[in-house]
Amino acid sequence: MCMNLMLEQIEPKMKAFIKDATAQYERGNKAAGRRARRTSLELETLLKQFRKRSMAFSKRL
After folding, report:
1. Do residues 10 and 50 lie in contact, with contact meaning Cβ atoms separated by under 8 Å?
2. Most distant CA pair in the chain, distance
């Protein structure tokens, strides 16, 4: 997976996470909290992959 595609996947998930986490914090929305936690797990995987690709990319420069 190329870095550009990874960024395209990370961005909407990050926006969704912020939206849901804010809804939980500001309004006490429990369902939003569950969504935020699920999204954080998905982001964790994508960000680890991004870090690995980024390190490999920087070694080529």
Report:
1. yes
2. 47
